[in-house]
Design brief:
Layout (H helix, E strand, L loop, with lengths): L2 E4 L9 E7 L6 E2 L4 E6 L4 E5 L4 E5 L6 E3 L3 E6 L21 H13 L6 H10 L17 H9 L23 H16 L2 E9 L1 H8 L9 H15 L5 E4 L2 E4 L5 E3 L1 E3 L2 E3 L2 E2 L7 H17 L12 E5 L18 E5 L3 E7 L2 E15 L5 H16 L2 H5 L6
Parallel strand pairs: 12-16, 16-17
Antiparallel strand pairs: 1-8, 2-4, 2-7, 3-6, 4-5, 6-8, 9-19, 10-11, 12-15, 13-14, 17-19, 18-19
Helix pairs in contact: 2-3, 6-7, 6-8
């Protein structure tokens, strides 16, 4: 019996995916569970396994986009044919074979371009040459979604000449990871009641702890902050919670998300069971996740299931900011740069390194007092890291 190869759901915000590459040839013999296809969401790449042993038949072309659940191909038994109605999913902008695609482009270039007014406006705004877009409307008429698909496929957007002949601004596609981030952030602001608390804390002992190990084994500052934040969350479970229906669930596990900046956006890999990790193990897992994020090899488990997020903009010279909650979590911690500032210690003015913490929490789930108590505990741990190591529930 034919077994369908379907587009998986790689996260809550995903509505469609893209075929990255087939890992086996059309007609190849495969075993059940063998990776046969790479698909990409707006954030990660995922290997799809064969649902059964048999012969692989491709339906989706490389770079084709398809909704969740779409049939990308089949695994067939020997001598079995493709099911009736099986349809090829072409890549964006493709009309079949390379030769026919090229002929279509030449025909469009030679004659007038048929496009809806909305498609023309979008093409003008996005800097898209309509003669290169394949229309899917009646008679090949180009529709707005055709322009969007063309721009989202990664074509370079060139500056458009203005009316006076000068070069106007360059436009960038509002698609892919950028669109996914926009969707999630706007949804968070619509559905939560965000409040941000900020506090400045002496980071001198934190720096000493971070630099105590000799190079090259020195633990990153982010890893130390992640470890101390996890210890504080264990003492304040109201910050490690989520809203399910009409019940607030206090989660027993800490799955800590740590934001990583990429060239074209932001991704939040998740340290699973962070409450079970010591400082060295935390550092090793964060290093692995950051490398995988930059190489686009994160798995679905690596980017889902977070219960609390840390985002550090200190390396960019930022002091404080208002981070947006990464739903369905109820809070997020922003960390600013470490900067030398005067401070009073034992009655004398001294220069000490300080950092600013920015905690955004969902006021629907908790009030300012418990959020401030968490922030106070974390500030104490940063100022005196030894407290986290000796706390009964601090977790070493």
């Amino acid at each position: 019996m034919a077994e369908a190869i379907i587009m998986p759901k790689l996260g809550m915000a995903m509505s469609e995916g893209e075929v990255g590459r087939w890992l086996c040839a059309d007609g190849a013999q495969v075993t059940a569970g063998q990776p046969i296809l790479e698909v990409m969401s707006k954030k990660i790449t995922y290997k799809v396994a064969a649902p059964a042993a048999g012969i692989v038949r491709h339906l989706a072309e490389v770079k084709a986009k398809a909704p969740i659940g779409a049939v990308l191909g089949y695994v067939l038994a020997a001598g079995e044919s493709l099911p009736a109605g099986a349809a090829v999913i072409a890549a964006a902008g493709a009309g079949g074979s390379p030769a026919s695609t090229r002929a279509d482009s030449e025909a469009r270039a030679a004659g007038p371009v048929l496009a809806t007014p909305a498609a023309k406006r979008l093409a003008r705004d996005r800097g898209v040459d309509l003669s290169r877009v394949r229309g899917t409307g009646p008679g090949g008429r180009i529709q707005e979604q055709d322009v969007e698909a063309y721009a989202s496929a990664g074509r370079p957007i060139e500056p458009s000449p203005s009316a006076d002949g000068q070069t106007a601004w360059t436009t960038l596609p509002f698609a892919g990871m950028r669109a996914a981030i926009a969707e999630r952030m706007a949804q968070s602001l619509r559905e939560t009641a965000p409040v941000t608390l900020m506090t400045e804390v002496d980071a001198g002992e934190l720096i000493v702890l971070q630099e105590s190990a000799p190079r090259p084994s020195r633990i990153s500052l982010t890893s130390v902050l992640a470890f101390l934040t996890t210890a504080a969350l264990k003492r304040h479970p109201r910050l490690n919670a989520t809203l399910v229906g009409e019940r607030i669930h206090l989660l027993p596990q800490v799955h800590l998300g740590v934001a990583v900046a990429l060239d074209d956006g932001l991704i939040v890999p998740v340290v699973r069971d962070a409450h079970r990790l010591g400082l060295a193990a935390m550092d090793g897992e964060l290093a692995r996740l950051a490398q995988a994020a930059r190489e686009n090899t994160l798995s679905v488990d690596d980017v889902t299931g977070g219960t609390f997020t840390i985002t550090n903009l200190g390396m960019f010279g930022v002091d404080a900011f208002t981070p947006i909650i990464n739903q369905p979590e109820c809070a997020i911690l922003g960390v600013g740069r470490v900067e030398l500032k005067p401070a009073v210690r034992d009655g004398a003015v001294v220069v000490r390194p300080h950092t600013t913490l920015s905690l955004t929490f969902d006021h629907r789930l908790l009030d300012g007092a418990p959020a401030a108590q968490f922030l106070k505990t974390l500030s104490d741990y940063i100022a005196h890291p030894g407290l986290a190591f000796v706390a009964e529930d601090g977790g070493i």
